[in-house]
């Protein structure tokens, strides 16, 4: 069986490729390299540089590599950017998915794993978010992910395609320094960047209805997330026509202030954060119930927040040697 990994040169995608390969699955990476890095793709894994909007190229690749399953991660993913460029996000995330699904179903590929997001939930008013929690996304990014789930499910119902939509919570960490997140759009690298600049990390709002006033999130190690993809892929292969929607998190909330304090301690810095105004649309608390993933996939996160911070820091220091503390 060969799995096509779209977005496989990206931060999460490269970890999925590594996990799938180590599990004995054949993989092919399909990435336009707009944000992906070719060097992340193992030498033994074929890399096709192309867009998911190119239906003809997709059809060729599916046939040439005898693809029997797809893990679709290629997408635009910045919430703030999506507010400014909604049409771009809908074209890339939804139209790109539609073109891909058309190629997949035409080729008779039996399994499809879709990269979704906790952003589909919007601002849930619950302690633990289950898959039945109402989805009320608050950004074009979140809307495109929810629409993507609908599209994947509809294609499955119409054609018998086995599908899984995995709703990621807050991803951090790295399997190896060279696979670390090089962007500065998530909390951990954002704090790293400020510390490296000898500036205080920023906390966006400390007046939320949470124990310390800062937002509470569920952080998941990217290695655990990648293993969830392996489990989902194998579950679909074992049960043709299956349809799964699963939260991928740890079920443990950590506040932004707690996370900043841990990063300071583990990196050797002692730089108190500064509090700035809230960002629009930030919910006070978003923490997953991962019970369904455990039941359906026999999967559970193994890594804690310390693992995430230390592994991410190794990658950051590799790219920014000046950040290391003696």
Outline the structure in words.
The chain has 326 residues and is α/β, with parallel strands linked by helices. The protein has 2 domains: 2-171 and 219-248, NAD(P)-binding Rossmann-like Domain (Rossmann fold), CATH 3.40.50; 173-217 and 251-323, UDP-galactose 4-epimerase, domain 1 (Alpha-Beta Complex). Helices cover 40% and strands 18% of the residues. The protein is built from 10 helices and 13 strands. The protein has helices at residues 11-22, 55-64, 79-84, 86-107, 140-159, 187-196, 222-238, 256-267, 291-297, 305-319; strands at residues 2-6, 26-31, 47-49, 69-72, 111-117, 162-168, 170-172, 202-204, 216-221, 243-248, 253-255, 274-276, 285-286. Helix 1 (11-22) packs across helix 7 (222-238) and helix 4 (86-107) packs parallel to helix 5 (140-159). The N and C termini lie far apart (48 Å).
């Amino acid at each position: 069986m060969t799995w096509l990994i779209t977005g496989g040169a990206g931060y999460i995608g490269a970890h999925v490729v590594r996990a799938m390969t180590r599990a004995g699955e054949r993989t092919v990476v399909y990435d336009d390299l707009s944000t992906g890095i070719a060097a992340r793709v193992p030498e033994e894994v074929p890399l096709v540089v192309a867009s998911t909007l190119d239906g003809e190229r997709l059809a060729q690749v599916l046939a040439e590599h005898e693809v029997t399953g797809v893990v679709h991660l290629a997408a635009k993913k910045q919430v703030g950017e999506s507010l400014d460029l909604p049409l771009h996000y809908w074209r890339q995330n939804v139209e790109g998915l539609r073109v891909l699904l058309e190629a997949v179903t035409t080729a008779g590929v039996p399994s499809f794993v879709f990269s979704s997001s906790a952003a589909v939930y919007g601002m849930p008013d619950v302690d633990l978010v289950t898959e039945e929690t109402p989805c009320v996304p608050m950004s074009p990014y979140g809307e495109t992910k929810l629409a993507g789930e609908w599209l994947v499910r509809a294609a499955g119902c119409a054609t018998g395609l086995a599908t899984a939509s995995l709703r990621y919570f807050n991803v951090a960490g790295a399997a190896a320094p060279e696979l670390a997140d090089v962007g500065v759009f998530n909390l951990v690298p954002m704090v790293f960047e400020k510390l490296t600049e000898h500036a205080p990390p920023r906390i966006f709002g400390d007046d939320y209805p949470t124990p310390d006033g800062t937002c509470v999130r569920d952080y998941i190690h990217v290695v655990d997330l990648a293993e969830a993809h392996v489990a989902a892929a194998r579950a679909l292969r074992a049960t043709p026509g299956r349809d799964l929607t699963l939260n991928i998190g740890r079920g443990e909330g950590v506040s932004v202030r707690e996370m900043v304090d841990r990063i300071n301690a583990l990196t050797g810095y002692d730089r108190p954060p500064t509090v700035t105004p809230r960002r629009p649309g930030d919910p006070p608390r978003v923490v997953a119930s991962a019970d369904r993933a455990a039941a359906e996939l026999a999967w559970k996160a193994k890594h804690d927040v310390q693992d995430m911070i230390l592994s991410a820091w190794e990658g950051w220091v590799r790219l920014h040697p000046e950040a290391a503390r003696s």
